[in-house]
Design a protein that fits this description.
6-stranded parallel sheet, alpha/beta, Rossmann fold, 330 residues, globular
Length: 330
């Protein structure tokens, strides 16, 4: 079978498609014949060798696979040959391992899928799992009625827009181009802001009649981060879930005290809080699987590439031009 390995961390050229023996499931394990692979930022970080939860080298950098059960180990109950399943490396003992034609995993790590669910859509659900946690698990002081999503056309951004709308929120998304603006509106956002040419905070307050939003969701951080406090309404929360542009230079406490009239909150979120909370982690995934099964959400797929095109998939992801999720198929 084919699998993707990283022997020496680096750029997309570090990704090698190799031939390996088909793994055989042991007791309590299942073998999955892959039909779709998710491509995400953790995969890139593993490839670069900088992931905080780095698996040992040589490493298979894939973290999400959807397919059908093709073999059962002894003692496995409740799953059947041919059944559709989703596997996230978040449910494994270490990250990675999912870029392969066949993947073996503990039976209690996979998520059974309804037969009518499309596997290419299902493999996008890790983004929705994160988005659901951001919206519903971060315990905002008061349930937000509105949200500002920074980078609303990306993989997690599109999931945030859809789930926030499902929760009844008014959603504002920031984008960089007209193409992304049209995509974000079609994805459900009520308003878009062009962050390169518009003042995000001023425009947000204008769109909310001066009230501000209940929640700002930001994965960029960097020098703009503290300014988003000005976009919040009373009891609002500024929620950081990554820091692609580095850390803010301003004193966060001083910046918050400049907005004492709204009692703002800042929260820093990582999904790794669920690493040792199996029940919580899997409950989140069940929630988004259920939403997908009733067509309440519709994952936006930006590109579908072959596994042999894994270098191209990583290149596209790092270019930042994708509208939604990049996936691969065998």
């Amino acid at each position: 079978m084919r699998a993707v390995l990283v022997r020496q961390p680096g750029g997309p050229d570090a990704l090698e498609v190799v031939e390996l023996p088909v793994p055989v499931p042991g007791a309590g394990q299942v073998q999955i014949r892959a039909e779709a692979f998710g491509v995400g930022q953790p995969d890139v970080l593993i490839r670069r060798g900088v992931y905080k939860w780095m698996p040992p080298l040589p490493a298979n950098p894939g973290n999400d696979v959807a397919g059908r059960i093709s073999a059962l180990g002894s003692g496995v109950e409740g799953l059947a040959l041919g059944q559709k399943v989703l596997l996230s490396a978040r449910d494994l003992s270490q990250r990675g391992g999912c870029y392969a034609d066949y993947v073996v995993a503990p039976a209690d790590a996979v998520h059974a899928l309804p037969d009518h669910v499309e596997l290419q859509a299902a493999v996008c659900l890790s983004n929705y799992q994160v988005a659901y946690a951001l919206l519903h698990e971060c315990r905002h002081p008061r349930a937000p009625a509105s949200a500002l999503v920074i980078g609303a056309a990306g993989g997690v951004g599109t999931a945030l827009v859809q789930l926030a709308k499902l929760a009844g929120m008014t959603v504002i998304g920031t984008v960089s181009t007209e193409e992304k603006a049209a995509f974000t509106r079609a994805n459900g956002a009520d308003h878009v802001i062009f962050y390169r040419s518009e003042d995000v905070v001023a425009r947000t307050r204008e769109l909310t009649d001066g009230e501000g939003v209940g929640l700002v969701l930001d994965h960029v951080c960097g020098p703009e981060f503290t300014s988003y406090l000005g976009a919040l309404g009373k009891w609002g929360t500024l929620l950081s879930y990554n820091a692609f542009a580095g850390l803010p230079e301003e004193n966060l406490m001083a910046a918050m005290r400049d907005h004492l009239d709204i009692c703002p909150a800042i929260r820093c979120f990582s999904f790794h809080i669920y690493d040792h909370d199996r029940d919580g982690r899997r409950a989140l995934m069940r929630s988004v699987i259920e939403a997908l099964s009733r067509n309440a959400i519709k994952p936006a797929i930006s590109a579908v590439l072959k596994l042999d095109e894994v270098r191209k998939a990583h290149t596209l992801l790092e270019q930042g031009s994708a509208l939604g999720k990049i996936i691969m198929i065998p």
